[in-house]
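Students often ask why inverse folding is considered easier than folding. One informal answer: many sequences map to the same fold, so there is more than one right answer. In these notes we will look at a single instance of the problem. The structure comes first.
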């Protein structure tokens, strides 16, 4: 395996340097997998923290339940909260807007498909049929970055609406764990968008082609798919499971 890797490296065009490990994978790809492994542990700890404190907030607003501003009364409906002794003016609605977040989730998942097509465009650069704009890497890199930015826009809207509803990172345990977890994920999405924009700029300047450029886009794709998979877990645990 190592001999084949050395032979492939020596056969690479001038200016393209590939450094393989004993696993047969390029060392930069191994580094990305190592980073993803460490990020998995960080997200696992944040998700575990959210689950530990889930349902333990003494004051509202709450994620799925109706509540009362002046007491710890919680109910499944506004009528139930009022029946428990809360004035109508003090009733708080659930803060999570699942339809809006479902839209943002769909956008982020579709960005993974766009990332796959962008990598395919780089791998097939110069081949017949792949010189068209709708099959080229530039178009799909731009689409991936655009959908990532749209997801961040949805998240900014959600955070703003939560603040207007009275939920901040200091309000209760739900606010602290929620903003920390989703904000940390949003930061990863923002980093990924900047990475994609950088690749797009390179593509527009000189074109992404050859084994080295394919590797660079492949590594970016690994990171982007990881970010998407993490969001599936977050969306399921926070928004879908009450």
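Output (designed amino acids):
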């Amino acid at each position: 395996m190592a001999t084949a890797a050395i032979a492939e490296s020596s056969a690479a065009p001038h200016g393209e340097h590939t450094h393989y490990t004993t696993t047969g994978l390029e060392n930069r790809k191994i580094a990305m997998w190592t980073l993803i492994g460490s990020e998995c542990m960080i997200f696992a700890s944040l998700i575990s923290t959210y689950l530990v404190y889930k349902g333990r907030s003494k004051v509202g607003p709450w994620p799925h339940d109706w509540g009362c501003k002046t007491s710890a009364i919680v109910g499944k409906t506004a009528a139930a909260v009022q029946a428990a002794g809360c004035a109508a003016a003090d009733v708080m609605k659930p803060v999570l807007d699942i339809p809006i977040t479902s839209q943002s989730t769909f956008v982020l998942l579709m960005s993974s498909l766009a990332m796959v097509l962008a990598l395919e465009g780089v791998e097939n650069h110069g081949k017949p049929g792949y010189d068209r704009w709708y099959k080229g890497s530039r178009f799909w890199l731009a689409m991936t970055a655009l959908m990532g930015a749209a997801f961040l826009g949805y998240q900014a809207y959600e955070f703003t609406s939560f603040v207007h509803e009275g939920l901040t990172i200091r309000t209760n345990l739900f606010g602290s764990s929620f903003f920390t977890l989703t904000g940390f994920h949003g930061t990863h999405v923002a980093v990924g968008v900047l990475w994609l924009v950088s690749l797009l700029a390179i593509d527009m300047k000189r074109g992404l082609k050859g084994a080295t450029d394919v590797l660079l886009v492949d590594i970016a794709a690994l990171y982007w798919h990881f970010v998407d998979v993490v969001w599936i877990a977050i969306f399921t645990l926070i928004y879908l499971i009450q």
